[in-house]
Design brief:
The protein is mostly beta strands. It is built from no helices and 10 strands. The protein has strands spanning 3-7, 10-11, 18-25, 34-39, 46-51, 58-60, 68-73, 78-83, 92-98, 116-119. It starts with a strand and ends with a strand. The mean pLDDT is 95.
Length: 122
C-alpha cells in the first residue's frame, strides 16, 4: 500500500515562497516519475510538476513555469516543490503521487495523502 505524506504548506503573502515536501513509501520510489498535483476549492485536481527518477526530465504546468521547481532526494524517498513568486491563484491543497507511465500527466494511484494547504490571499 502506498503512503504519501505532504508537508510544508501555509499562509503566505503574494510574492512569497514556500517549500513543500512529500515523503513516499510503499513502493520503489524511483520506479516511476514523481509528481505534484493541486486542487483548488470547487475545481478538479490538476497536474503541477513532475520529475523523472534520475532528475533529468521535469515537466511543469505552464502557469507555474519559472516560479516552481521540483526536485527529489531518492535516498530519502522524498520529493520537493519550491514555490516562488506565489500568486492568489496558487491557493490549493497540494498533493504528491507517482506519475502514470508515459506522457500522461495523471497520477498512477488513486490513493492520496492528506495534502498540504497553500493559501495566498488576494
Amino acid at each position: 500500500q502506498v503512503q504519501l505524506v505532504e508537508s510544508g504548506g501555509g499562509l503566505v503573502q503574494a510574492g512569497g515562497a514556500l517549500r513543500l515536501s512529500c515523503a513516499a513509501s510503499g513502493r520503489t520510489f524511483s520506479a516511476n516519475d514523481m509528481g505534484w498535483f493541486r486542487q483548488a476549492p470547487g475545481k478538479e485536481r490538476e497536474f503541477v510538476a513532475s520529475i523523472s527518477w534520475d532528475g533529468l526530465n521535469r515537466r511543469y504546468l505552464n502557469s507555474v513555469k519559472d516560479r516552481f521547481t521540483i526536485s527529489s532526494d531518492n535516498a530519502k524517498n522524498t520529493v520537493y516543490l519550491q514555490m516562488n513568486s506565489l500568486k492568489p491563484e496558487d491557493t490549493a491543497v497540494y498533493y504528491c503521487n507517482w506519475m502514470a507511465a508515459g506522457a500522461s500527466l495523471r497520477a498512477q494511484y488513486d490513493d492520496w495523502g492528506q495534502g498540504t494547504q497553500v493559501t495566498v490571499p488576494s
